[in-house]
Amino acid sequence: MDLTKKETLKHMKVLTEFHSAPGFESDLKAYIKNEMEPYADDFIYNRMGGFYAVKHSKNPNAKKVMVAAHMDEVGFMITHIADNGMIQFTNLGGVAADIWQGQRLKVKNRNNEIITGVVASIPKHFRTGNEGLPEIKDLMLDIGSASAAEVRARGIEIGDSIVPDTDFIQLSEQRFAGKAWDNRYGCLLAIEILKLFKDKQLDVELYVGANVQEEVGLRGARAAAEQIDPDVAFVVDCSPANDMKGAQQLSGQLGEGTLIRIKDGTMLLKPAFRDYLLELCNQHDIKHQYYISPGGTDGGEIHKANSGIPTAVIGVCARYIHSSDSVFDIRDYYAARQLLFESIQALDDKQIEHLQYS
């Protein structure tokens, strides 16, 4: 089944512009499920909020393969509504505190309406030079309301979620910008990999879906892994690129292909799995690059679940993630999609046993 660039770009725009902070993933979940429905035999759900589409195998003894994205993006939660209508908030996920002043953010209120505001900043005219770096708790969102009563009349309350207000745009032929490519990349890949296998028979039972609350501590991954109990798992996630001043050692370069993540703060890639991925990259001429990260992915929880699950991250990198915008190269996405496709298609019982016990 062919996937057109136009179709991919349409999903990129819709997915990156979704409002889906940690713990508030339900609207995005409904969208992804709707897109997957024509290509899924079944769906399973866990009580954390994650869900997986299932593609059954005709093999009665089929091994289970899990493909895990996450639906949440870094964002904020309202903690205080001041008498003058200004809104204070706390972060959901890891963000730098000094990049938000003057930025537009959008609140999702209790009526599921989106309301945009601007984070307050001190104009140059009023600066003393002693302001120092801001903390998230000191930032204030201005939605144009003059009182707390006015804010609440617009359906906004403490506990509501906030994300950046950023449009998806094309910067050049191959490069794009938008918020939340971490990890709408994985959501897009989950949708498209299911479509690619629509007319193909697999020796494995395929579970493709997305977890919740990854950005606040990989919280949704364990429930999904324990429910599915896969024999092999692939995590699809986006990582930070550190190439603004040129190539930096194993820290991701735009346009250099999918990431072979050999080490991060939560997981080491098993040598057998590394060699399996590299062999497929070389066999199918898939552009790839080694990657090391101080952070982690849902793989950190998945690979430890039950009696241990061989897990690999098939990722891409993007600049400026965990901010109001990110820049990425669509060719890296295509490389990751092909590697995931080939990795699943090549699995059989012998290969899975090798990945599990070598």
Automatic annotation (TrEMBL):
Chain segments annotated as coiled-coil in the UniProt record: none
Key words, A-Z: Aminopeptidase, Hydrolase, Metal-binding, Protease
Domain of life assignment: Bacteria
Record keyword Kinase present: no
Matches recorded under CDD domains: M42_Frv (cd05656)
InterPro entries assigned: Peptidase_M42, Peptidase_M42_aminopept, Peptidase_M42_dom2
Record carries keyword Hydrolase: yes
Similarity comment text for this entry: Belongs to the peptidase M42 family.
Name assigned to this protein: M42 family metallopeptidase
